[in-house]
Amino acid sequence: MRDVRLLVTRRLPQAVERRLAQTCAATFNTSDQPMSREALEQALTEYDIVLPTITDRFDAELFGSVPVRTRLIANFGAGTEHIDLGAARTAGIAVTNTPDALTEATAELAVTLMLMTARRAGEGERELRAGRWPGWHPTHLLGRSLWGSTLGLVGFGRIAQATARRAAALGMRIAYHSRTRAAAEVEAAFAATYCADLDALAAQSDIVSLHVPGGDATRHLVNARFLGAMKRDAILVNTARGSIVDEAALADALGQGRLAAAGLDVFEREPQVDTRLLTLENVVLLPHLGSATIETRTAMGMQAADNIDAFLAGSALPNRVV
């Protein structure tokens, strides 16, 4: 398949790049920076397959602006909100994703953020590094225990359920809101309580963790109203997509003491972050590390490669989105 041209828009783990290079004529973006719109237009005209990431936006205008050679977009990641799926279908392009590989790592990070915010670990580390630690005393940096608290999950898919499994092991009660209620046996497995009303979930939860996809349907789902429904001593955690949270409203709530803390791994305008969030002590900020383990990123790349292999073989695509 050396006549089939593949463009990989960002650097991937070495094992993945070696496999892709053996599969077809692969070109890698060695700068490892997001590609310009002009470069993406050129990719659609010159490559049979494009392997992009969330930093590459394929909108309807892009698909309609050039004669398209590409027949497969093998996305590196589960979310596809950066790709106009309808426009891709119209252009005759199949789209695949990597839905399973990042589940456990992202759930781990969600729990990491819960622990860091609840136990004020970020504040403590900054204090210690700055030489401001006064020494141990009984009321210093008192946080809260996760044990016995209620975790409210917005969304109840793979990552949310993996998070619930870990949270239950820490002694947390599980509640969730989802467009589709889970089967009774799934709820029983997690001792999870379904909440049909989103604001009601916010009101009863000590920690709210977000696990819904990005896109227009969920943009600013967490807004001033939602934050106002949360307890004043509650915590918000987001490892899903930055667009789900109205960052200005969140900064207001945190700065005015209407919310105890937040742990954020994703942001509305990455890599830019609302400047007020950068100055608040009651916020833990991580640079989109949800799937950032060597095992997970390699597995994601191998899953994308599986999709490419199936495409080249003329077989059904394992993780076809459109």
What report would you give on this structure?
41% of the residues are buried. A 7-stranded parallel β-sheet has the order 8-7-6-9-10-11-12, with helices on both faces. Strands 2-1-3-4-5 form a 5-stranded parallel β-sheet, with helices on both faces. Helix 5 (103-118) crosses helix 7 (158-169). The protein has 322 residues and is of the alpha/beta class. Helices cover 38% and strands 14% of the residues. It has helices at residues 14-23, 37-46, 60-65, 85-90, 103-118, 121-129, 158-169, 184-190, 198-204, 224-229, 247-255, 275-279, 294-313; strands spanning 5-8, 25-28, 49-51, 72-74, 94-96, 150-154, 173-177, 192-194, 207-210, 235-238, 261-264, 283-285. It is built from 13 helices and 12 strands.
Brief synopsis:
With 322 residues, this protein is an alpha/beta fold.
Q: How are the strands of the biggest sheet laid out side by side? A: 8-7-6-9-10-11-12
| Annotated CATH architecture of the largest domain | 3-Layer(aba) Sandwich
Number of strands: 12
Task: Give the CA-based shape.
Answer: globular
So, the CATH homologous superfamily of the largest domain?
NAD(P)-binding Rossmann-like Domain
Q: How many domain modules?
A: 2
Helical proportion, percent range: 25-40%
**Rounded radius of gyration (Å):** 21 Å
In the CATH scheme, the class of the largest domain would be: Alpha Beta
Cα(first) to Cα(last) distance is 24 Å
The CATH topology of the largest domain is Rossmann fold
pLDDT below 50 for ≥5 consecutive residues: which ranges? none
**What is the tally of helical segments?**
13
